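Chapter summary example.
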Amino acid sequence: MKSKLDARKLLSEYGNVLVLLLLCAFISIVTLEEQSPRSTAAANRLAEKIAQASPKGANVIVLVRSGKGQQEFADKLKDALTNAGLHVPDSIVGTPRDARIALEKQTATIAAIAADNHMATFCADQLPNLGKAITALNKTTVHQPRKHKWPNFLKKENLLNVLKQISIVAIIAIGMTMVIITAGIDLSVGSLIAFSGVITAVSIQHLAGGGDPTTGHLLLGSAAGILVCAIIGMGTGSLVTLFNIPAFIVTLGVMFIAKGLAFIFSESAPIPVSNEGFAWLGRGSDLMGLPNSVVLMLLLYVIAHVIMAHTSIGRYIYAVGGNPEAARLSGVPVKWVLVFVYTLCGLLAGLGGVMEASLHITGDPKSGTLVELQVIAAVVVGGTSLAGGQGKIFGTLVGALIIGVIRNGMNLTGVEAHMQSVVYGVVILIAVMVDQLKNRSAKTGA
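The structure predicted for these 446 residues follows.
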């Protein structure tokens, strides 16, 4: 009996992790495809294979179709062939037409062509005819890396892309989790993203005085965007506590105000930041290839977990959400706790706005549209109860990952945009129904 209860408790607390793992497994299966590897090891193996089949010093051409990461792969192939004692007179990264022009110019005998999957197909089709017309190509053989099957979903660059895409939503979801645990809601975070980005870009332009902004200007401008949103969050919390206005109404009003101000201050046009250094947070990858935005996200989640699990403010937040009157009678400063969570949520939304502006090197008043719904979805899917008093920071991170994995899976499998909206809606409804069932089960158990 005890083992059954433990299993039920384990499933209740970590069921969303199981859902995430099952989703990853399913998407991995449906995105399983034959891959043409582009790693350094694949380039070395291909060069070794060509060296064994060709005389030392033989001429080998590298042909790689243009695309992301293809130039890097061509360089790896060229270096590997050279190290294997072969001569590489030409290395082409381009279209089949570029490859054909390069082949037609060859005068010295070409022993082999090292190609990726696309160019190998082109050579198989065109080389027999070219060999008849061009003496240098009549004994040329074509080699490509050995193919293998692997899910597109599990490629390193795709997994990093998933983490990068959810980073802004996940960071704001930290504050939203605390707000929802207190039985509140904040609908303004999407508009605050736009407002923060615009304030940041305007501040940087003003500080630079029409010239090129320095690193100091970038930092001060970013701080301004974050601080303004934190002050707005403080105002939201104050309205909720001092005037007892429902959080839904207050944050709905703030949502319209922030969005309107973003368009007013930007004059309805994106504001560019003329310093590529501003992209450091949104595009940079300084720690073992991890995007800086992902590193920041993970760091903030560790801090948030410590706050919620090991500090008095974390216990106060749960107490206010569970029973605010009982918390007040126990000495918990309920109003200050509510102001704190809304201020933190606004601050993190401001940080999200800076990250979004950094990603595009632009403060755009149109950014952040419907992000508040993604944030709330991540929190709810992560297991935080809309009734308040229950939820975990780790669960929110898992919820954000679930939303990100679903979006990525639909993009990889070609699901059209409107159907993606339907799927998101279904996921949110299922998460809310599960939350209600858990609450009913808890009441029945009590």
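To summarize the output: The chain is about 70% helix and 5% strand.
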